Structure formats: C-alpha cells, structure tokens
Amino acid sequence: MSLINKYSTLILVGIIIVLAAVLAGTLIFMYNQPPQPRAFEPLVEIAAQEPDSSKWGLNFPNQYTSFLKTGQNTIDTTYGGSSAFSHLENDPRQVILFAGYGFSKDYNDDRGHEWALTDVRETKRVNETTPGTCYSCKSANNPRLWSEMGMAAYDATPFAELGLQIDQSIGCANCHEAETMRLIVTNPALEEALERQGKDWTQFTRQEMRTVVCANCHVEYYFAGEGKYLTFPWDNGTRAEEIYEYYEDIGFKDWAYPETDAPMLKAQHPEFEMFTADSTHYNAGVSCADCHMPYVRDGAAKYSMHDIHSPLLNPEISCGQCHTNTEDVVRRVNTIQDQVYNTKLATEDAIVDAITAIKLAKANPNSDAALLEEALQLHRQAQFYWDYVSAENSMGFHNPEYVLKLLAESTNLARQAQMKAAQAANDPGLLEIDTYYPEETGAVLP
Ligand code: HEC
Ligand code: HEC
Ligand code: HEC
Ligand code: HEC
Fold first, then answer.
1. How far, in Å, is the centroid of ligand 3 from the Cα of 70?
2. DSSP 399
3. pLDDT value for 23
4. How far is the CA of 277 from the centre of ligand 4 (A)?
5. 76 or 12, which is more confident?
6. Average pLDDT over the chain, rounded to whole?
C-alpha cells in the first residue's frame, strides 16, 4: 500500500470518527432537551384580567380543557373527593359543635373549581345580610372588579347586588397575569397580609409561587369591621396558635354559642397554613402544584394538569414523579387519614362533653361566674384548634404531625373546660357526662 493510500485511509477513518462523535453528541443533546411545549402563535390577544376563561382557552387549549374537567368530577375518596357530600350527615357531632351558626345547617364538602360560583350561590349560609366578601374566592371576575372598585367597596357591597356583576366561576385570571402568563397574587387580602409580614411576593421564586398562588383562597380569613373587609389573620405568624393569639388580641368572634354565650371562632380552610407549618413535603421544597397539578402529556406537549382534585384519584402521576412505590405511599396516606379521623372524633366527643357541662353549670344560679368564664374561654380555644384541623381538607395528610399535636391540645383544653364547669357549679357530676354518640343512640338532633 502506498504512503498516499495509507494517509487517505487514516483521514477517512478520522472523518468517520469525527462524524460519529458529532452524531452521538447531537443525539445526546436532543435526548436531554425538555419536551417542547406545543409551538403556537398566540391566536388571540387576552385583555388584562380577562374574566372569561374560554378566551384564554383559545391560546391554551390543553390547560383550558383540563380545567373544564373540574366541573365534571364526581368521584369520592375515603375522606375527600369531588362530590359535595354533607359533613353534617356524616358526622352529626358537628351539628352540635356549630349550633347557632350557619355551618350547623349546611356544610358540604368542597368540589371542583368550576363549581365554586354555583355552590356559593346555593348554600343556605347565604342570606340578605351576607356581604359581597363571600364572592372573594369564587370568581374570575374578581381581579378586574378589585382593580375597578377597590376591595373595600367590593366587600361593602351586599352579596346579592355584587352578584349582578359576577358571571364566571374561578378561572385563569385568578392565578395568571394575561400578558406574561406568570403566576400572580390576585387577592388584595393576600398581598396585604404578606406586606404586613414584610414579604414582597414579586420576589418569590417560581417554585414558591406554585404554592402561594393557592393561598389566594385556600387560607384562614375573617371579615374585619363593619365593611366586612377581607383580612388574613397572619400578623403574628401563620400557625394555628399564632392565628388564635391574633384573634385574642383583637377580641374577635364569629358567633356566640347558644345558651352558654361562648365567643366562638369558625376556622375556614387553612390548607396553605397547615402545609407550610413545617410539613415534611413543604420542608423538602414540594409545592401544592406538584401534587395537585402534575405535568401530563398530550403527544409532544407537556403541560400542567389544570383538572385540580384529590391526588388519590391519580397517584401514579401525582406522587409517582417523586415516589417509586406509589401503592406504598397511598397506603401511608390511608393510615394517616384513618388515624387523624379517629383522633378527631375523640376530640369532638371531648368538646361536646365540655359544652354539655358548661350548659348545665350556666343553668345553675349558684355557679361561680369567673370559673364559668374560664370554661367558656377554654371551649373557644379547644374548638378553634379542632376546627382548624377539621376544616382543613386533607384529613391530616398535608401535615400529619402538626395535626395530631393540635388535636391533642384541643382534647386537653376541652377536658379542662369540662373540669372548670364542674368546679364552677361545684358539681362533680359534670365530670361524669358521657359523650353523646348520635350514631349509636340514633338520637334525632335539634
Ligand atoms: C405531597 C402532595 C400534596 C401537596 C404538596 C399538597 N397536597 Fe393537597 N392533598 C394531597 C392529598 C393526598 C390529599 C387528600 C385527598 C383525599 O383525601 O382524597 C389532599 C387534599 C387536598 C384538598 C381536598 C381535596 C378533596 O378531595 O376534597 C385540598 C383543597 C388541597 N389538598 C389543597 C392543597 C393546597 C392548597 C396545597 C398547598 C398549600 C396542597 N394541597 C398541597 C396531597 C398534597
Ligand atoms: C388555581 C390557579 C390556576 C388557575 C385557575 C389556572 N392556572 Fe394555569 N397554571 C397554574 C400553575 C400553578 C401553573 C404551573 C406554573 C409553573 O410551574 O410556573 C400553571 C401553568 C400554566 C401554563 C404554563 C404551561 C404549563 O402548563 O405548565 C399555562 C399556559 C396556563 N397555566 C394556562 C392557564 C389557563 C388557560 C387557565 C384558565 C383556563 C389557567 N391556566 C388557570 C395555576 C392556575
Ligand atoms: C380563586 C380562589 C381559589 C384559588 C386561587 C384556588 N382555589 Fe382551590 N378551591 C377554591 C374553592 C372555592 C373550592 C371549592 C369549590 C366548591 O366546592 O364549589 C376549591 C376546591 C379545591 C379542591 C377540591 C376539588 C375537588 O374536586 O374536591 C382542590 C383539590 C383545590 N381547590 C386545590 C387548589 C390548589 C392546589 C390551588 C393552587 C394551585 C387552588 N386550589 C387555588 C378556590 C380556589
Ligand atoms: C415533588 C416531589 C414529591 C411529590 C410530588 C410527592 N412527594 Fe412525598 N415526599 C417527597 C419528599 C422529598 C419526601 C421526604 C423524604 C424524606 O425526607 O425521606 C416525601 C415524603 C413522603 C412521605 C413520608 C412522610 C413522612 O413524614 O413520613 C409520604 C407518606 C409521602 N411523601 C406521600 C406522598 C404522596 C401520597 C404523594 C402524592 C399525593 C407525594 N408524596 C408526592 C417528595 C414528593
């Protein structure tokens, strides 16, 4: 073989090696690219704070179509799911616990975002005196109304009157800025509560926003003053104990308990506060959207599932992205929830005992007024901690350790309330009161 031939063979081999390397590199590069979202030109320009989600849907069909499914879900899980079952029928103790308040008449489980507007209009808890504030978490009309009217005027408008301007359930405008599609704080009450804590949400990371955007609505709140101004009670912090302390500081009550006049508080749905109170997942950097809005595929497109519901209905996609053994973690959820549920019932029994004892002590003209007052205060605190767990919609899963601590504290406070009532009336018989078990006695409730 001539020298020239030898060289050209070498060159040829060299070229082949280089080409193979380039090809391999290209393949590795392509393989490692994140899946591209479906390429599209925005079809329509979406106006700022557009209330009508179907208009956004023209640009984002996957998100919109999956979002619409929240109006069709009906499947229940052991403790949650998407039907609006009655908490009062499932657990008649709650009729006693909420006596004298709207929740003793009508208290149904939450369902999908598409239902929010219908459900707030249908609940028996709404009447002529209901303020417009009750629409705050139910409609995509809100961001624009808040900009136009200001939240103070919005809240001061009666529910029925404000309702004339509201025709959309929750929608894209509650979570996204139209121009950029970034996640935003839309509820002025959230922005103000964060500000009072010295926090500026515009500085939050994207992962933080995937949780904070839910705090527009899934939080504890109250209506401040005559104008029923929507306020988050977070000035002392967002744990149950700190929120209770806040209500103590301002002397707030939602209603007075019948016959005893205890100043009661109603907890709302503190999913955000419960989850962020040092739960395992929160501390590991997991967000609400990770479990409730997992990524799904439509052909080449990868998008966040906007069909928000119980993750137990699709644990493979909700939990499977991080946990290899989904069956095992779902079993863990069941164990946690059963334990929380049974502990919660025991706490309810303790509070119902306390209420009965206080009523009897109150009816006794010889009771010591100061001790009775202490008993009322203990009932108030016990019931707030219980309700904080009960009204939170995950049956303890979002933060099992903290939930069990709160229930233990609540039971302890309730038993102390019962003892104080017995002391006040100087009647040890009040310690013997045995809890009312409606399902065993078949008793008909008031
Ligand atoms: C680690 C996963 C995970 C994270 C993170 C998470 N959740 Fe959940 N969530 C669950 C599970 C599991 C349930 C229980 C569902 C059931 O009982 O059917 C649940 C229940 C709920 C429910 C009640 C659902 C129903 O079917 O009634 C709501 C509302 C909710 N979560 C909101 C939130 C919000 C808001 C956040 C963030 C502040 C959050 N979740 C964070 C897993 C998660
Ligand atoms: C309850 C709050 C909420 C509502 C309502 C909502 N989104 Fe989203 N959306 C999110 C979250 C959370 C993400 C994830 C964002 C991220 O990871 O940065 C997201 C992501 C997106 C994205 C980015 C791509 C993707 O899928 O991750 C688009 C586009 C989008 N949403 C469109 C819409 C449209 C259209 C609507 C109305 C039909 C809508 N969203 C309603 C919370 C919401
Ligand atoms: C604009 C207010 C608002 C925002 C923002 C919001 N939610 Fe909701 N959410 C509600 C209301 C109200 C309901 C109950 C609707 C009903 O029962 O009619 C609800 C219901 C739910 C349910 C129960 C669904 C079912 O099928 O049982 C889940 C789960 C949930 N939300 C999770 C989230 C998560 C996660 C986020 C953040 C990504 C979020 N929500 C953001 C107001 C909101
Ligand atoms: C984005 C990732 C992510 C997702 C999604 C996720 N988890 Fe987790 N999970 C974690 C991490 C991280 C831990 C902490 C692991 C550790 O510290 O050992 C954890 C821990 C747990 C634990 C043990 C908690 C404890 O305190 O013992 C359970 C149970 C669990 N996850 C259930 C679930 C369920 C059910 C889902 C779906 C509804 C889910 N997880 C979704 C990341 C995730």
1. 9
2. S
3. 79
4. 16
5. 76
6. 92
Is residue 171 within 8 Å of 118, Cβ to Cβ? no
Stretch (H or E) spanning 255:
strand 255-256
Please tell me the distance between residue 394's alpha carbon and the centre of ligand 1 in angstroms. 5
Write out pLDDT tens, residues 239-264. Answer: 999 999 999 999 999 999 999 999 99
Beta strand 295-298 with 222-224 is unpaired
Considering every ligand atom, which ligand is closest to the CA of 38?
2
Q: Could you give the CA distance from residue 3 to residue 77 in angstroms, rounded to a whole number?
A: 79
Residues 291/284, Cβ–Cβ less than 8 Å: no
Most informative mutation of 319, 326, 337 for ligand 4 (most atoms within 8 A of CB):
319
Ligand 3 atom, smallest distance to 214 CA: 37
Q: Which residue has the least CA distance to atom 18 on ligand 1?
A: 80
> What pLDDT score does 30 carry?
62
CATH code linked to domain 53-441: 1.10.1130.10
Give every CB contact of residue 383 below 8 A, 6+ residues apart in sequence. 97, 264, 265, 351, 410, 414
Q: Is the pLDDT of residue 444 over 50?
A: no
* Residues 307-323, mean pLDDT to the nearest whole number: 97
Instruction: Give the ligand with the smallest distance to the CA of 285.
Output: 4
Q: Among residues 181, 172, 170, which one has the least CA distance to residue 139? A: 170
Q: What is the pTM of this model?
A: 0.91
- Please indicate whether residue 290, judged by its CB atom, sits closer than 6 Å to ligand 4: yes
92-150 confidence digits (pLDDT tens): 899 999 999 999 888 998 999 999 999 999 998 888 889 999 999 999 999 999 999 99
Q: Kindly state the tokens that stand for 52.
A: 């009508």
Indicate which residue's Cα is closest to atom 33 of ligand 3.
214
Burial 17-44 (b: 16+ CB within 10 A, else e): eeeeeeeeeeeeeeeeeeeeeeeeeeee
Q: Which of 87, 168, 218, 313 to mutate to test the pocket of ligand 3 (most atoms within 8 A of CB)?
A: 218
